[in-house]
Amino acid sequence: MEKGRGLFLWFLCLGLLLLAYVGGQVSPAVFLLAGLLLPLPVLLVGCRLGARAAWLLALAAALGMFCLKPGLTIILENLGFGELLLMGVLLSALNQRGLPPQRVIIFTAAGLNLLALLFFLGEAFLSGMTPQALLTQKSQEILGVLSQVMGGAESGAKEQIFQDVPWAELQNLIPQLLPALVVINIGVVAWINVVLSRQLTVLLGWGQPQPPLFYWSTPEWLIFVVLGAGFLLLVPVKGVRLVSLNLLLVLALLYFCQGTAVIAAWFNRLGLPRFLRLIGYPLLFLNPLVLLIITLGLMDLWLDFRRLHQPRDA
């Protein structure tokens, strides 16, 4: 009976992956949603059936995507889906090893970013383009997808969506910040899928609740890296300033995670109902709350809102 349920779960997740792939081909909104949650079915299968089942699921999904539209071109066009499937496999494998969730997320993000960098340099070499030219091309592709998601909005509508950054300035800004945006995107997707998988496994009764993620804490020495990157912004050299700005954005993600952990601890202390938490967490990603959460994560280093560093009574 247990084996039958496992097979049902495996094929259900395979169907969800293929459905997300097909939907992403016809709807930019579904494409973005799949880009956020595609690793989740693989991770859930890994949590329930083991890392080997997760590997088989990812391979079957990749083969199914290829069979829907065979050809080398479709492989190159859907490398992003392959990367998300690989993310689910890595998250599952590291989770099975019993690593803390923070390390699972960081190790997965680091590995995928290194793989993305190697592939980017290889693509630039094979296409005979400079890395800067290829970076500009990728930026234009991202802007194209973003424009499609907004439904081909007129420039005035785009200005309303990006109130703080004009659309024309955004087109110039993305190529400069693309390295940090890639790192942040992979890190956020890994983080969200780990959080959701932990919640779902508890709701489905697949084991004992794991330690909550509101114990997330960045190393204290990292603040010196933040200060160093901030001082580098004052250097009158464009290349140095771009590197420091990208580094600060990546570090901001870590402190955003810490600030979110502080909020989660407060939610838990207040005993907020689950549906209120489901409303509250997405709001943290909205501007200007993002900056407030990052600031909260930085302040937690000194104020210790969660009392993590206070001695416990014997």
Would you mind describing this structure in some detail?
With 314 residues, this protein is an all-alpha fold. It has a domain at 212-314. Helices cover 79% and strands 0% of the residues. It has helices spanning 2-26, 28-37, 39-49, 51-68, 72-77, 79-96, 101-127, 131-149, 155-161, 167-203, 222-232, 238-270, 274-283, 289-303. Helix 1 runs antiparallel to helix 3. It is globular and about 60 Å long. The relative contact order is 0.07. The model is unreliable at 152-161 (pLDDT under 50).
Feature tags:
314 residues, mainly alpha, globular
Helices, by number, come to: 14
**Major sheet characteristics:** none
Rg is 21 Å
Uncertain segments of ≥5 residues (pLDDT<50)? 152-161
* Residue fraction in strands: under 5%
Percentage of helical residues?
over 70%
How confident overall, as mean pLDDT? 82
Number of strands: 0
In one word, what is the shape?
globular
Termini separation comes to: 47 Å
Structural class: mainly alpha
What is the string of SSEs from the N terminus onward? HHHHHHHHHHHHHH
